[in-house]
Amino acid sequence: AQSVTQLGSHVSVSEGALVLLRCNYSSSVPPYLFWYVQYPNQGLQLLLKYTSAATLVKGINGFEAEFKKSETSFHLTKPSAHMSDAAEYFCAVSVPVDDKIIFGKGTRLHILP
Amino acid sequence: DAGVIQSPRHEVTEMGQEVTLRCKPISGHDYLFWYRQTMMRGLELLIYFNNNVPIDDSGMPEDRFSAKMPNASFSTLKIQPSEPRDSAVYFCASSFRQFSTDTQYFGPGTRLTVL
């Protein structure tokens, strides 16, 4: 069975600094991986997804994530944080044959002025 | 497209009352999901439908919870009787194809408070 772990329930970065949100997964077969973002009082929306094509995936709002099979990781990065990036971020893993998607517990990103 | 629509956005009720949450998925989407989000348990999948048929309800916490999808454009999640521990944000989401690979589109959620 697959699982996903997000390291750090809260992360604070200064405006303009690098954003790094960590996600590690466990899967016995090649997974699909997702990052979703949840802004306050809203539903989740897709930031980006990895579906076995390019290992470096670019998403919306300047975010990107790199699939590293050897490290079983799919960390989310953004070179320069903006105040509008303050939100909760969820990593998710799925395998096509299983028709299930497992969400991580989420990481709340705080942006310091 | 208006996206996934949920109503009501907020619901406050007293313990023992029946609560009905409503969802209209994006037109043309084959899958509909109901999730519950709490601080303690995070995001939990309660049930999902494919072409209006319930496929997996293993996440439904107990018999007090029921969900229906009478047609492709409407679904309900009912809690009867409600309890304070049911207080949470309930999300409806939909996707076009096989949901393990496709993007899920979430509604804004219903914040339920059971007193």
CA-to-CA gap between the ends of chain A? 41 Å
| Main β-sheet description of chain A | 6 strands, mixed
What's the SSE pattern of chain A? EEEEEEEEEEE
Quaternary structure of the protein: heterodimer
Mean pLDDT over all positions of chain A: 93
Distance between the termini of chain B: 36 Å
Number of E strands of chain A: 11
Q: How big is the Rg of chain A? A: 13 Å
Main sheet characteristics of chain B: 7 strands, mixed
**What structural category arises from helix and sheet content of chain A?**
mainly beta
Radius of gyration of chain B: 13 Å
Form type of chain A: globular
Which whole number gives the mean pLDDT of chain B?
93
Number of helical segments with 4 or more residues of chain A: 0
Strand content of chain A: over 45%
Q: What structural class is derived from the secondary structure elements of chain B?
A: mainly beta
Low-confidence stretches of chain B: none
Instruction: Determine the fraction of residues in helical runs of chain A and give it as a percent range.
Output: under 10%
> Biggest interface between protein chains, with counts per chain?
A-B, 21 and 18 residues
Task: Draw up the topology in text.
The complex is a heterodimer of chains A (113) and B (115).
Chain A (H helix, E strand, L loop, with lengths): L2 E5 L2 E5 L4 E8 L5 E7 L5 E7 L5 E3 L5 E5 L4 E6 L8 E9 L4 E4 L3 E6 L1
Chain B lengths: L4 E3 L2 E4 L5 E6 L6 E8 L3 E9 L2 E4 L8 E7 L2 E6 L8 E8 L9 E2 L3 E5 L1
Parallel strand pairs in B: 2-11
Antiparallel strand pairs in B: 1-3, 3-8, 4-5, 4-9, 5-6, 7-8, 9-10, 9-11
Task: Please tag this protein with its features.
heterodimer; A: 113 residues; mainly beta; five-stranded antiparallel β-sheet; globular; B: 115 residues; seven-stranded mixed β-sheet
